Amino acid sequence: MTAPTPTAAKPTVQKDRSMAMQKAMVDGNYARLARAEAERRKVAYTFVPGNINELLMCFDLVVNYPEINAIQNGMRKKSGRYIMEAEKAGHSEDVCTYVKADIGMMLKGNIGPNDERLPNPDVLMLSYTGCFTFMKWFELLRHHYKCETAMLHVPYEGGSGFSKNSRDYVVKQLKETVIPTLERVSGVKFDIDRLREYLKESQKAEENWVWVLESAKHKPSPIDSYFGAIYYISPIFTAFRGTPTATEYYAELRREVEQRIANGQGPITPEGEMKNEKYRLVVEGPPNYTSFRDFWKMFYDEGAVIVASSYAKVGGTYDFGFRHDPDHPLESVAEYCLNCYTNHNLPERVRMLETYVNEYQADGLLINSIKSCNSFAAGQLMMMKEVQKRTGKPGAFIETDLVDPRYFSPANVKNRLESYFQMIDQKRRATAA
């Protein structure tokens, strides 16, 4: 008899304490969703940008995030077959792959990333913040689930900052449409003092979160603000913002980062600590999730740390001053929605990226253009050229996708990154000369 071929051991993934905490939190929310029907809990589906989690908690709703399901399935190598399922059902190749991964999962029984069935929604809570695809996505879900839908229309800001009229317009919708719908669906009467308590917790977490983001100004940076931030942003951008659990998480994350600064350490990556910071980059655009570790390793191998990224602001631009304010609860919720990155116009996005390159002493701006995400891809070449002109730092452009494995070409991405790092080296030599 032939001896069985030994199975290759999976490479060990190194994680810091906060990553383990974040995973436990996400797993816990999936467990709550799995129990929701048995416990007769009402369920809301909503999106990350502009989410009103504190308000949803006022109605005892269990919250499901379709984007997060797509991301988790992408990292677990499940999204490809769901996308194919959606395309078989008639959805175009050019449609956002978050949408197709979610629709495909729904068509195959709505089995979530934790291998348990996700409950049907009792209400779809759409907060529109600059991504038209969200509206069409929820139209598809409403057609399938035939449940209530509440829409919060958030005006796209054409100037610098939002206007009082825009804020008042959002508050009016909260009072007249959103809150009455959530009361009717949940059977729970709205209590504004309860909202204030949640916003107090949000504010505490946001203070520590901004401290962590700005810790990347240190050399070496103790965090990676793109790959590492995928773990860090989850509690504050999803079902935990406003809870003592999220407050505790960001306090622990801050302590962890403070210790790394004191020790002169770089960020923790799946390959281990980044010990040789050679390049400091700002990145625009979402990451690729289906090859997340391989993608991150390309940067690790070159000693490249991302010190700031626009994607870490998709659920709130806290580092530009916004905090939830319990003294003005509904106005604060409205301002949060208006301040999400995808609700900023292109000149404002350029200004943010320019600020990051300068304040974080980055070597340049890297664009990761996502094939199926128009909210980010539109105008990115113009943005790159403008940031180059303003900062004098080189830019580069790579292309991948969110959760479609067909559009991640490791060789192509690696070659472009190597060329970019050579460009940075040449720029340094020229500056020294």
Write up this protein.
- Helices cover 51% and strands 11% of the residues.
- It has one domain.
- Helix 2 links the parallel strand 1 and strand 2 (62-64).
- It has 433 residues and is of the alpha/beta class.
- The longest helix has 23 residues, at 164-186.
- A four-stranded parallel sheet has the order 2-1-3-4, with helices on both faces.
Number of helices: 16
Shape: globular
Give the rounded overall mean pLDDT.
Answer: 92
Q: How are helices and strands ordered from N to C? A: HEHEHHHEHEHHHHEEEHEHHEHHEH
Arrangement of strands in the largest sheet:
2-1-3-4
Termini separation (Å)? 68 Å
Approximate helicity band: 40-55%
Biggest sheet details:
4 strands, parallel
| Structure classification | alpha/beta
Number of domains: 1
Radius of gyration, in Å, reads 21 Å
What share of the residues does DSSP label as strand, in percent? 5-15%
* Unreliable spans: 1-8
